[in-house]
Amino acid sequence: MKIKMLAGKTIEINVDLVKERAKCNFNIREVTHILDGGEKNTIQRKKIEDISLNDGQSRDVIPEEYLSPKERYENAVKKSCIYARIIKTELMNMTGLETLGFNSPVFRRIADAYFKEVTPLLAHFGMFVPTIMGQCTPEQLAHWLPRALNFEIVGTYVQTELGHGTFIRGLETTATYDPQTEEFVLHSPTLSSYKWWAGGLGKTVNYCVVVAQLYTKGVCHGVHTFIVQIRDEETHMPLPGIRVGDIGPKMGYNTGDNGFLVFNHHRIPRENMMMKNAQVLKDGTYVKVARHEKLTYGTMVYVRVMLVNEMAFNLAKAVTIAVRYSAVRRQSQPKPNQPEPQVLDYLTQQHKLFICIATAHALQFTSDWLYKTFTSVLADIRDDKIDTLPELHALSSCLKAICTSDCAAFIEICRFACGGHGYMASSNLSMIYSYVSATRTYEGDYTVLLLQTARFLVKAWEQVEKRRPVTSTISYLSHAFDKLKKPWDGSNEGIIRAFQRVAAGKISACINCIRYHQKSGKDFEDAWQLTTIQLVAAAEAHCRAVIYDTYYNETIRLTASSSPNVKSVMEQLCTLYLLYWSLERTGDLLRFTSLSEKDIFDLQQRYEKMLAVIRPNAVGLVDAFDIRDEILNSTLGAYDGRVYERLMEEALKSPLNAEPVNSSFHKHLKPFMQGKL
Ligand SMILES: CCCCC/C=C\C/C=C\C/C=C\C/C=C\C/C=C\CCCCC(=O)SCCNC(=O)CCNC(=O)[C@H](O)C(C)(C)COP(=O)(O)OP(=O)(O)OC[C@H]1O[C@@H](n2cnc3c(N)ncnc32)[C@H](O)[C@@H]1OP(=O)(O)O
Ligand SMILES: Cc1cc2nc3c(=O)[nH]c(=O)nc-3n(C[C@H](O)[C@H](O)[C@H](O)COP(=O)(O)OP(=O)(O)OC[C@H]3O[C@@H](n4cnc5c(N)ncnc54)[C@H](O)[C@@H]3O)c2cc1C
């Protein structure tokens, strides 16, 4: 152990980690600034982290694993109020800082110091407020937004029902306009129409955005959004006509009180229909305002965009834990009479972990780029231009699907990399995994969203066939008709072009398949269904090509004025990422490009050399994510590397250790062992 001063405190640091940090050849702070989107953001983030975490209010006295479900929820509500107060106060102090807002990555990060699972207010922050911002008229906004931002009301987003989640048009809850009273009557006509899943609905919120089928003058106009009060603002009792409760234990999100909601002819004022995109006049006349009917789905697009950033952060946490632990952990004896090596020195361990670091960078840069695209499309929509929306929908759908799926898979690999101790709850890897694993399903299931992107790609292909211009992310399709396979080029640019050919080749194969089925007499819908396995694969290939291109270009752009070693290490990670996926997808490359067996051999050699090049900087790279111990919440991943001490300290907190003999011994085990039971 070595003693080191950190933030004014003297701490003991594991000697292997001290050596690792001494080996690091680049400026860690510089990389942190790049990942944060600039030094100004890092300074601001650290300031808010200090304010919100230094007083220890985020800490639990008893680890929440030992609390009952009810106590865990109550503890989460208590901490949510402290957390929300910090956001309110800091937001007021932050005017002018355009990069930080209500849903800023900074507030997101500190939330993890407060909640091992989630805050019951997650959907208030992530969905209720964004829906108010996106779906209200200016008058409605003036009424609802200040109340929601001040937490005078707390809300959630209630869309999914027992019977339907994916197929929104199939939702059954009705909102029928009554012109006599100028009210909407909300009703749940069947068991399958019961609302199910909304976060915070079970016990926490008093308002919600409800998605329901709008009926007026006897005509159904499809799903619309309504602001519905469900609990009394004083007593918190459910209002008449409302049945509401918690849906019970889940694989994760257990402090999130996901709920059910049943309406029995519950009335709300006409003004509570969110009327930015469509209106119902007092006499019941339906007026469509928006030019694109899917603008009602705006909150989902927003959350899908945010989830990409969410994935980058969660993977950064998991790999920080796994790399630090792998530097501390020593195991086996590959050579006789030699000391046991750090497990990080095993090539296979590097193969598990360095791709996770690279992926966290790839997702961070892709997420920043996607967010910019999102804000630019929002600006277009404000100017009544809706032609950029389909591309944003296609991009956010496939990126949400692939990033959540990759991130869950890589977090599980981080757990594998930590052996048995990775399975301890105190490693925090199981909590991170159960949180991330749900993201592949919610906000649009993986397969469903990739099929949305595939629809866009098939249409784009038809445009390209007609030699019509297409948007930037699919401009590579224009080269799909070049007949000759170009010689394999293993440079970064060459690999990206090769994967664009893979995507184009897969889309082309889908088109051929759909047309083949149509020629055999199938209608388009059936031909589409028969092609869906290939369509999902084509959308995945397109998405990966977008990520490769974005990661590569953003790395060059963001390191243009960096110090040489920072530039090198960031480029090495990007190259590693491209080599890793080339080797993972050799089948695709053999099918659609001129890659040969010899090229695969070369790729493998280059990949393994790159692992060795990155090895000395591994701990520095995860330190550069700059995730405080309070946020990591891990016995294995803390900055000081006191892994075994922390494991033991945490074990001693088990209530089972409070007494030398548990009463069940005398009550059950002893009589059983003595044959008396
Ligand atoms: C942990 C502490 C946090 C602390 C908080 C601090 C800060 C917060 C920070 C960040 C928060 C933000 C996010 C991060 C995390 C969490 C968020 C919070 C909670 C999330 C919990 C989960 C919530 C939910 O799950 S809500 C429910 C979501 N449900 C879905 O997503 C349903 C999926 N289904 C669909 O989207 C659609 O039904 C569909 C499958 C796309 C099909 O729709 P349909 O109407 O049938 O359309 P059709 O197929 O006919 O297509 C017609 C046409 O429309 C196009 N289309 C479809 N959708 C869209 C769209 N959204 N936009 C534009 N266009 C769209 C479609 O492509 C077709 O086009 P075309 O005809 O082919 O041209
Ligand atoms: C932790 C968590 C939190 C949630 N929070 C909220 C919330 O706050 N508010 C809210 O409204 N909802 C919420 N949800 C619900 C969530 O949005 C839905 O569960 C999700 O959209 C998936 O829909 P589903 O459950 O209907 O799945 P289904 O659509 O029933 O999916 C089942 C299977 O069928 C497949 N499938 C479905 N349709 C097709 C198709 N057209 N083609 C091919 N395959 C298909 C899917 O790929 C999947 O494998 C939450 C869910 C979870 C798990």
Automatic annotation (TrEMBL):
Boundaries of every Acyl-CoA oxidase C-alpha1 domain copy: 297-458
GO terms (BP aspect): fatty acid beta-oxidation using acyl-CoA oxidase; lipid homeostasis
Acyl-coenzyme A oxidase N-terminal domain location: 27-154
Keywords, ordered alphabetically: FAD, Fatty acid metabolism, Flavoprotein, Lipid metabolism, Oxidoreductase, Peroxisome
UniProt pathway annotation: Lipid metabolism; peroxisomal fatty acid beta-oxidation
Intracellular or extracellular location(s): Peroxisome
GO terms for MF: acyl-CoA oxidase activity; FAD binding; fatty acid binding
Residues involved in FAD binding: T160, G199
Domain called Acyl-CoA oxidase C-terminal: residue spans: 493-674
Domain of life: Eukaryota
Catalytic residue list: E443
Cofactor list: FAD
Predominant location: other
GO CC field: peroxisome
Family per similarity comment: Belongs to the acyl-CoA oxidase family.
Protein name: Acyl-coenzyme A oxidase
Native species: Galleria mellonella (Greater wax moth)
